[in-house]
Structures are given as structure tokens and as C-alpha cells.
């Protein structure tokens, strides 16, 4: 009989323990998801910068219409295509829809030598002000995501 009385007292212990552990478990799970989304987007920035630099490097050295076929225009178009989903790269600004979310700097060389014609694309995304998923308390996230890529073009 004494054993039955002790078992009755522990009847709700599992529910109480779960109630204590569940918030920490959920914070861990959503923290992993948040970091996964952020790292995936940073990889997209990396890919977009690399695609932009490559596009600038292979653009015609003397385009007939620099606004359409020039290195900077080709790089901006490649960045936009790589990021997709409403992103625009123009005048040093990275936009998503109508919001300015960062910078998009395309550095084209003023002159090229016979051996070097470097193009560089730098993308910066203000993650603190424009997070892709809601910020969670106690889960530190970076304030800025950035990536720079360079490519040698045809002289």
C-alpha cells in the first residue's frame, strides 16, 4: 500500500518536467532554423556577388550601349538574377521591392592593362533591420551579411 501512495505523487511529474524543458527545446529548434535560413541567404549573397563579377568580366570591352551591355549593367543584372525574388541592384543600393536593404557596389576598372582587368562586386545586406525570419530572444544573429567577389576580365 505504501508504494501506491508514492506512485500517485509522481503522476504529474512528467508533465511538469516537459513544461520546464519545452521552452528551451523550442528555442533551440527555432534557433537552428533561424541560423539555417540566414546561412542559406548568405550563400545566396556569395553566389550573387560571384555571378556579378563573372558577368562583368566577360562583358564586351567596348559595348555599343554601356547601359545595357556594359560591365556594370551586366553585373547588376547577374546579381538580380542570382538573388531573384524582387531584389534590385542599382546605383550602389540593394533593394527588395521598395525597401533599401543594403548596398550593391560594382567596381569596374577605369583602365585595363594587357595582363589585368579586375572587376569586383560587393554586396551588403542589413540583416538587423531586415531579418528573413522573426528575431528570437537569446539567439544572437549577425547585424550585417556581406560578401565580395572579384574576377579578371578580358583586357
Automatic annotation (TrEMBL):
Alphabetically sorted, this entry's keywords are: Membrane, Transmembrane, Transmembrane helix
> Any idea where the TadE-like domain is?
12-54
Indicate yes or no for the key word Transmembrane helix. yes
Q: Which InterPro entries match?
A: TadE-like_dom
UniProt xrefs under Pfam families:
TadE
Residue intervals passing through the bilayer: 20-41
UniProt name for this protein: TadE/TadG family type IV pilus assembly protein
Amino acid at each position: 500500500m505504501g508504494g501506491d501512495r508514492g506512485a500517485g505523487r509522481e503522476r504529474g511529474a512528467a508533465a511538469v518536467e516537459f513544461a520546464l524543458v519545452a521552452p528551451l527545446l523550442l528555442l533551440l529548434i527555432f534557433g537552428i532554423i533561424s541560423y539555417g535560413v540566414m546561412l542559406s541567404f548568405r550563400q545566396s549573397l556569395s553566389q550573387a556577388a560571384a555571378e556579378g563579377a563573372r558577368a562583368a568580366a566577360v562583358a564586351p570591352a567596348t559595348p555599343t550601349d554601356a547601359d545595357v551591355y556594359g560591365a556594370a549593367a551586366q553585373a547588376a543584372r547577374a546579381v538580380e538574377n542570382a538573388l531573384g525574388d524582387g531584389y534590385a541592384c542599382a546605383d550602389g543600393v540593394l533593394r527588395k521591392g521598395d525597401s533599401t536593404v543594403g548596398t550593391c557596389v560594382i567596381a569596374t576598372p577605369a583602365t585595363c592593362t594587357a595582363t589585368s582587368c579586375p572587376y569586383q562586386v560587393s554586396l551588403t545586406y542589413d540583416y538587423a533591420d531586415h531579418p528573413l525570419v522573426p528575431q528570437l530572444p537569446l539567439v544572437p544573429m549577425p547585424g550585417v551579411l556581406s560578401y565580395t567577389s572579384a574576377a579578371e576580365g578580358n583586357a
